[in-house]
Design goal:
Elements (H helix, E strand, L loop, with lengths): L1 E4 L1 H9 L6 H8 L4 E5 H12 L13 H7 L3 E3 L3 H6 L11 H13 L2 E3 L14 E3 L1
Helix pairs in contact: 3-6
Amino acid sequence: MRYLLDTHSLLWSLLDPQKLSKKARSAVLDSENTVAVSAVTFWEISLKFALGKLELTELLPEDLPAVAQETGLDIIPLDVSEAASFHRLPRLTHKDPFDRLIVWQAIQRKLVLICADREFQNYQEHGLRVLW
């Protein structure tokens, strides 16, 4: 299977894996799976860190891509076609642009999104598959 971690799932998988659900933890640890994280996630982390909305201990946001790669995660860029077609994702109850862009990448790349946010379930009718 191919998965994409949302921002919280990335942070939990790297810093506090027990916060992941049993299914999510199993998917991340299964070497048969491809697990990716979006460059958008690192942008969100950096912005929230700079605004004081996210606290990291012993790491800075710029350390996270290397840590993610060391643990076997793939890093996917934001493709220009994903950015340009993002307007096609309906604005439902979820307004956070970072989360919505990660949802759009998961839909476009046919990745299963590992995410605890129940509001993402609303995008299933638009092609999103969610694991938690």
